[in-house]
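Q: Is it fine to ask for two folds in a single conversation?
A: Yes, each is treated on its own. Send the first.
Q: Here.
A: Result:
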Amino acid sequence: GADEPLIRARSSERHCTSSVRPSRRQPSRRRRRQPASQPARPTMSKKEGKPGEEKAEPESSWKHLIYNPSTGEFVGRTASSWGLIFLFYLVFYGFLAGMFTLTMWAMLQTLDENVPKYSDRVASPGLVIRPKSMEIVYNRSDPSQYQEFVQHLETLLQQYNDTEQVKNELCLAGQYYEQDGSEQKKVCQFRRSSLGLCSGLQDSSFGYREGRPCVIVKMNRIIGLKPAGDPFINCTVKGENLLIQYFPQEGRIDRMYFPYYGKKAHDGYVQPLVALKLLLRKEDYSKDLTVECRVEGSNLKNNDDRDKFLGRVTFRVLVTE
């Protein structure tokens, strides 16, 4: 009981203290309403410009790429820059052209106009025939079948006409006609009349009309060739015993037509020819004959299996009535 007034006094004191403290406002839970956002008005920027000006700007920059009037640049370079580039390439390509010209000139000084420096030709010549056919097949009763053969022979022998050969030299038979000291080489005569019955002078059909055709054999030209011995052409008919007449006699190729100095130095040169007349008999008509001609009597090759035209030639003859 004695402590009761004291407790009451403390409780009343607490009450008074609590009543003296200032009251704190509680923040309002309601938020202020923000005004509704209005849609932004479209503003025209300076860069956008007017609708008509949209195409003007790319076109202007494209033109400035070619030529810029403010800087004076053409395709990104000034006139002085272009001038330096042009000068550089002018000097550069001029130097290359000069080097190429000098190299070609130096190389040409080592060459001979008449003789090739390097040659892939074989040391021995090949043989060819006229007419230009490896098959001489015709009926002797029909001139149209052998007229082409006759024409080939006549064309070849035009340059061998005696009227043409009279301007050439009469050389010494059996000896090489060497002319190393002279610039323009002379040509030895080979007259058409030396081919006798195959010259076409006595018989314009070269024996084709009578069924005894003529065939002309010649060697290919090789610069500097000097065959040893006395070369001649020898022909045989496989499996047959056929008589063959040769012009010049025995089919000889005289050494006076050698050496050959090239087309430029030896202008007007004519190759020596050998004509052979096939003396066909009546029983030889309608027979398929194979004729092989070889160059013999010298060091020239005529039996190389890899080249059937080296020093030899083979052709076929078939004459019918």
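Q: Second one now.
A: Result:
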Amino acid sequence: MEVLKLKLTLKPARVLGSRFKIGGRRQDVCGCTYEGRYIPVGESFWADQDCRWCKCVAGRRSVECQNKGCGVGQRCQVVEGIRKCQAVSHSTCQATGDPHYKTFDKRKFDFQGTCVYQLVALCSKDPELVHFEVLVQNDHRGSKVVSYTKLVVIKVFSLNIVISKTHKGLIMVNDELVNLPVTLHGGKVSVYKSGWYGVVTTSFGLKVSFNWESAVFATLPSNYMGAVCGLCGNYNSKPHDDLIPKNGGKPVSPAEFGTSWRVAEIPEVTSSQATEIENKKLQLNGTGAK
């Protein structure tokens, strides 16, 4: 029996430049090499300890970088395997007692207004910062001379979170009473009890605590430096300019400064609304007791 022998000759494949044809058009397929690493076409990345922003450019097989760097209060760091600009510190603003305020830059003052005021909010157009607002409502308690924080509102991620003296141990989320703890907006916001305080934390570093009585604390990471405004000041490491009013200009008295950040009069609550809220509280407390 004859054995048929076949000789198979393999020729090495050739890469024809960095393109091939799809539908009659030449397409880029090769990426770039940066410090020994392969970078796919069109991919952007932080390049080095200076956080230069680089991209593999299609058709050129080269990496182009911008000296973007990190903003105020940030440092280029690797966190969970990803290099990016990270906040290097945090600062806390507070309103306690009747109420005594201390700004992010540690400026202290007293303000006895009894309306709704902006404690702190994002006032920058920086697209990399998450927008938020924290409002406080003050009221008199026995004396018309002094006022106390009665209610705190946190507006973030389309959520309206209210921690009020009226509903101790509970919060309101978009006008609904809610038991704690609770996770909201896909895990980006958490609200829980810690000691005497209700605490709201967010994925971007904002933390707000209120004891349902008279003490509120707001903490922000340093990448928000110079980007916020309100009774907590502008967080720019310059306490001497913290009492500049909302419309700008020079620093003014605490009374004038505080009044400039008024956003609303104290809202009226109808008897039917009060009854509805009390019924909801009873339901929640009953559920919690089971």
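Q: Anything structural to flag on that second result?
A: Two points. Confidence is low (pLDDT under 50) at residues 1-27. The longest strand covers residues 148-156.
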